[in-house]
């Protein structure tokens, strides 16, 4: 019988994928986080692996388990995620699918905060987290050839994502509308628009696995010298 081997167009390539939320501690038992199941990032890592890439999968505490056959680097906070991405370099491409918390608690406590009986909540102070995507996109040396960001938006999705792409300096942005009524957050499907220097290309609503396969295909095409 003739067995057709899957094409391994990313063999010999190294891709970093960030995925899941980050957790920013308030004290040992409490944290601040973004909503993210990690499903889309996990599917992307699996699709890149299927094309033969070596994948460094830098993941926050996600709901879905990481894929098999990738290097899993588990982190908690945005600062740890930035350090893990830095340690995984050099890479041919990076896909930043993580829902990174924008702030960490600057006055996080080593011990559990107790209610003091006054009924008032303790005051939390916040400090901005490093923007991992912007940092990687603007690395003066050792920048991956292709840097892909995500933009989960609820309003003016394409405009906001286009501005985000320019501001951060990444090559592509995968934008999606996460208005609760779409059912995309936490669901198994996604409807994305790929924004590049060629403009905005909207894909139909697909399973997250199919979005991942298409994106991995495009990455393989681009790294082999093809068009965006
Ligand atoms: N991102 C990152 N590090 C951060 C924040 C975001 O790497 N500290 C990445 C995300 O993984 C994603 C992209 O940047 O690929 C866009 O994230 P988003 O939260 O939409 O962008 P922000 O610049 O944080 O803008 P907003 O104020 O809309 O949250
Ligand atoms: Ca953000």
From TrEMBL:
GO terms for biological process: coenzyme A biosynthetic process; pantothenate catabolic process. It catalyses: N-[(R)-4-phosphopantothenoyl]-L-cysteine + H(+) = (R)-4'-phosphopantetheine + CO2; (R)-4'-phosphopantothenate + L-cysteine + CTP = N-[(R)-4-phosphopantothenoyl]-L-cysteine + CMP + diphosphate + H(+). GO terms for molecular function: FMN binding; metal ion binding; phosphopantothenate--cysteine ligase activity; phosphopantothenoylcysteine decarboxylase activity. Binds 1 FMN per subunit. Residues 10-221 form the DNA/pantothenate metabolism flavoprotein C-terminal domain. CTP binds at residues 102, 112, 130-133, 150, 164, 168. The keyword S-adenosyl-L-methionine does not apply. Residues 15-228 are annotated as: Phosphopantothenate--cysteine ligase. GO terms for cellular component: phosphopantothenoylcysteine decarboxylase complex. Pathway: Cofactor biosynthesis; coenzyme A biosynthesis; CoA from (R)-pantothenate: step 3/5; Cofactor biosynthesis; coenzyme A biosynthesis; CoA from (R)-pantothenate: step 2/5. Its cofactor is FMN; Mg(2+). Keywords: Decarboxylase, Flavoprotein, FMN, Ligase, Lyase, Magnesium, Metal-binding, Multifunctional enzyme. Its EC number is 4.1.1.36, 6.3.2.5. In the C-terminal section; belongs to the PPC synthetase family. Catalyzes two steps in the biosynthesis of coenzyme A. In the first step cysteine is conjugated to 4'-phosphopantothenate to form 4-phosphopantothenoylcysteine, in the latter compound is decarboxylated to form 4'-phosphopantotheine. This is Coenzyme A biosynthesis bifunctional protein CoaBC. It comes from Paracoccus halophilus. The gene is coaBC. The chain holds residues 190 to 417 of 417 of the full protein.
